[in-house]
Amino acid sequence: MTARICTVPNCGSPAASDFSPHCRRHKRTLRRHGAPDQSGVTKTELAPYLARIEARIARNPTNETWPLMEEIWASIVAEAGATASRRIGNRYERSAANEIVSIAQDVSPATVIATVLAMVLMWHDRPLRFRTDDALRVQIARRVRALSSRHVGLRYDHRTGQQVRIYREMTPKAAAILGRKLMTAFGAIGLRLADLDARDSKAATEAKQRLATAISQLQ
Fold it and tell me: Highest taxon of the source (predicted)?
């Protein structure tokens, strides 16, 4: 048994091996979520940020930003299709490419893009929610991948006599590649939308303050 202790603060469990800085639990978390102490972003948690993106789009329905982003996604999908069809090359790149192709077959471009933008809004508003940049990219990849049902299967549970949904995990490197591609494509746009939200919030606060001042001066 190794004498090393997991390096995650307040864990105290033995490291998985003499060569691992983490215990088995945090080693699994690192593989799944991009950092040993990163928790997954849920659909419910992302919902308010997604609503903000949808509201921004609704206020600017004819703006060229949205179709141009769909063109960017289409080029990512086309490149992924070419990579996935090759028998040679980096296997992690091919794995990420296969994920992109599967997502594109199952999910509309607008939904993919809105999800990435919502994740960027969350990162802007709550940077401490993501332990590292790697964790952010992996969480973006996982939330986008979760839009598709192609990675979900069924397994028969003999104890309950029922079918149980099982989730096929991405490899850590494929998740990192997918997240990096999505962040590179749409991250700057998401930050711009975050700035617009901040501007609107400031304007609304100032309007309330002016109203309060005006009311206080009534005679």
Answer: Bacteria
